[in-house]
Amino acid sequence: MINFDNSAASFPKPASVSKAVYEAVSRFGGNPGRSGHKLSAAAAQKVFEVRSAAAEMFGAQVENVAFTLNCTYALNMAIKGLAKSGGNLVISDHEHNAVARPVYKLWKSRGIGFSVAATGENDDETLSNFDKLINEKTCAVVCTAASNVTGRIMPLKRLKKLCESRGVPLIADGAQGCGVLDLKVGADADIICASGHKGLYGPCATGLFITNGKYTPDTIIEGGTGATSAQLEQTGQLPEMLESGTLNTCAIIGLGEGIRFVKKQTPQRILAHERALCRQLERELENVRGVVFYEREYERVGVTAFNIGAMHSEEVAQKLADKGFALRGGLQCAAVTHTALKTKEQGVVRFSPSVFNTPQQVAALARTVRNLA
Amino acid sequence: MKKILITMTSVTYAMKAKKLLNAMGIYCEIERTPKIKGSGCGYSIRVKDPAAVTARLDKLGIPYKSVLEL
């Protein structure tokens, strides 16, 4: 099967990632940061090396990088950890449920308000829409680096400046941006939440919470951190305060190799390759009757969203799967975005290539889509 | 010979300290902090010249708890 669903999880992984995970299972089985013996120390050292590599990639101090299960966990930690009673949150209309659902839950359970900034025809309009919604009650602004439905890139740097001028933290959902956009804490957001298993080519269920240290969220999970065990109070020290319980050492070590792979390829080259494949698909399908694309006119990461006439996107995705192509139909866990795109009923078919896909594979997909149309 | 430990606030800071100090030519090793009443568990760096190391740590902005002579 040819995987064009890399926005969900990149696959295949670099051989170095598989090798590192195998080696980790075989050699680094101690519990990192829990004991003083050699097994624990060796595992802790490997975890620290990956933390350092991630910190370098995102321009953070090493202690400001916490490992999470995925981007959703990191976003929950950031959003719920910064939300305050009586306050409100501002999100964009291109958010994933990883943002929309915690925000909705906070409203429902704690009465913390939220408002949705419409994405405009251009960045000025988008920023103006955010600006109008930020007020003295705003606890945080949450915005994706790039839409997981259409790939549209959001003006994070300018939004960060706006938030800074208003004294409000900006949380970025980096699930689709990390590994292809050069995101840095400080310049692009106060907190970047990243997925390890998408653009960073790590194993599934790896994620990162990265902060510039200016805003420290309250914890939403407490427990053992390997230090200050005599106190009932959770440690207030990053990153351990956000890493209660045993870390997934093997996956983290694999993620380290994924990060190394991305650094070697460079995010710029990966982005250029993926965009070229998207352009190829769009070119090959643009005159096919009934095929429509979404947000094609905007600057995007390597993602293309399309539909074929009135055919439901899930049906198209299933037919493509039957022919050996993995693409995602439906709503991509982003109801807010589909409301904005007016595609909530039909959904879209999402094409998201990785560094490993080829123009030949895209040509084969295009032929198959033409036959379906 | 006395064993001198600088107790650190976290394992991550202990490792950061070791990495940066070693890069400066100051040798140190990470050890589990011995049981001290009320402190629970934690990590330390074992050093030879605590005054020089704490001065470096202050300069690097790396927090630490205390200096122990055992």
Instruction: Assess the beta-strand content of chain A as a share of residues.
Output: 5-15%
User: How can the largest sheet of chain B be summarized?
Assistant: 4 strands, antiparallel
What would the CATH topology of chain B be? Alpha-Beta Plaits
Main sheet specs of chain A: 7 strands, mixed
Under the CATH scheme, the architecture of chain B is: 2-Layer Sandwich
- Given the C-alpha coordinates, what overall shape of chain A results? globular
- The assigned structural class of chain A equals alpha/beta
Average predicted confidence as pLDDT of chain A: 97
Give me the oligomer status.
Answer: heterodimer
Task: Give the N-terminus to C-terminus distance of chain B in angstroms.
Answer: 9 Å
Give the CATH level 1 class of chain B. Answer: Alpha Beta
Number of strands of chain B: 4
Biggest sheet: strand arrangement of chain B: 2-3-1-4
Number of helices of chain A: 11
CATH homologous superfamily grouping of the largest domain in chain A: Type I PLP-dependent aspartate aminotransferase-like (Major domain)
Quick rundown:
Chain A is of the alpha/beta class. Chain A has helices at residues 15-27, 38-58, 71-82, 97-110, 123-133, 156-165, 249-265, 267-285, 313-322, 335-341, 359-372, and strands spanning 2-3, 65-68, 88-92, 113-117, 138-144, 170-173, 191-195, 207-211, 291-294, 304-308, 325-326, 349-351.
Explain this structure to me?
The complex is a heterodimer of chains A (373) and B (70). Chain A has helices at 15-27, 38-58, 71-82, 97-110, 123-133, 156-165, 249-265, 267-285, 313-322, 335-341, 359-372, and strands at 2-3, 65-68, 88-92, 113-117, 138-144, 170-173, 191-195, 207-211, 291-294, 304-308, 325-326, 349-351. Chain A has 11 helices and 12 strands. Chain A folds into 2 domains: 2-10 and 266-372, Aspartate Aminotransferase, domain 1 (Alpha-Beta Complex), CATH 3.90.1150; 15-264, Type I PLP-dependent aspartate aminotransferase-like (Major domain) (Aspartate Aminotransferase, domain 2, 3-Layer(aba) Sandwich), CATH 3.40.640. Chain A is of the alpha/beta class and 373 residues long. In chain A, helix 6 links the parallel strand 5 (138-144) and strand 6. The model of chain A has no long low-confidence stretch (mean pLDDT 97). In chain A, strands 2-8-7-6-5-3-4 form a 7-stranded mixed β-sheet, sandwiched between helices. With 70 residues, chain B is α+β, with helices and mostly antiparallel strands. Chain B has one domain: Alpha-Beta Plaits, CATH 3.30.70. In chain B, 34% of the residues lie in helices and 29% in strands. Chain B contains 2 helices and 4 strands; from the N terminus they run E-H-E-E-H-E. In chain B, strands 2-3-1-4 form a 4-stranded antiparallel β-sheet. Chain B is globular, with a radius of gyration of 11 Å. The mean pLDDT of chain B is 91. Chain A binds chain B through residues 32-33, 35-36, 41, 44-45, 48, 51-52, 62-63, 225-231, 235, 237, 239-240, and chain B through 9-13, 15-16, 19, 30-32, 38-43.
